[in-house]
């Protein structure tokens, strides 16, 4: 089977229900999710080099997230989303929230902005977080211009929070302290 079709040689591609430019807002949105998925895979590969045990949950979560990012891309690929065909469900976002809360309990309180980095796994997860934020911006642009499933936007918003929490947890597991941005005012408050 050949993987090339030549149908996109003139800058057009197919989404479900339409033919659009490769720079269409819909293609930008799901393309950025695809890029994010690659970075999540890279972060998982970095974690695979760590000693097993406390990393198993995080690696398993990243695998689940990779599948769910494909679900997000699938939902975004509909020119006109059809509710009964959407794969992203509220339960997926709720699960991310549970994971965020679990990581929040394992990390020191945070008051100020922090610099991305610390350990290699944390740095990789911070890259994922920033690409996720860009994907979210692309989805917001899409939603302003064309039909867009709300659940995808909610999931991606929460996913960036998850990636932040996971990066902090990775540093804590490895004994690295988060480095506060030195000119940051206190911006975070613990919610009860």
Radius of gyration: 18 Å
Under the CATH scheme, the architecture is Up-down Bundle
Uncertain residue segments: none
Question: Per the principal axes of the C-alpha atoms, what is the gross shape?
Answer: elongated
Would you tell me the structural class of the helices and strands? mainly alpha
Question: Can you characterise this structure?
Answer:
This protein has a single domain, classed as Cobalamin adenosyltransferase-like (Hypothetical Protein Ta1238, Chain: A), CATH 1.20.1200. The chain contains 5 helices and 2 strands; from the N terminus they run ββααααα. The chain has helices at 25-48, 56-76, 90-105, 120-145, 150-174, and strands spanning 12-15, 18-21. Strands 1-2 form a two-stranded antiparallel ribbon. This is Corrinoid adenosyltransferase. Its EC number is 2.5.1.17. Keywords: ATP-binding, Cobalamin biosynthesis, Nucleotide-binding, Transferase.
Tell me briefly what this model is.
The protein is mainly alpha-helical and 192 residues long. It has helices at 25-48, 56-76, 90-105, 120-145, 150-174; strands at residues 12-15, 18-21.
Write the layout of secondary structure elements.
Layout: E1 12-15, E2 18-21, H1 25-48, H2 56-76, H3 90-105, H4 120-145, H5 150-174
Antiparallel strand pairs: 1-2
Helix pairs in contact: 1-2, 1-4, 2-5, 3-5, 4-5
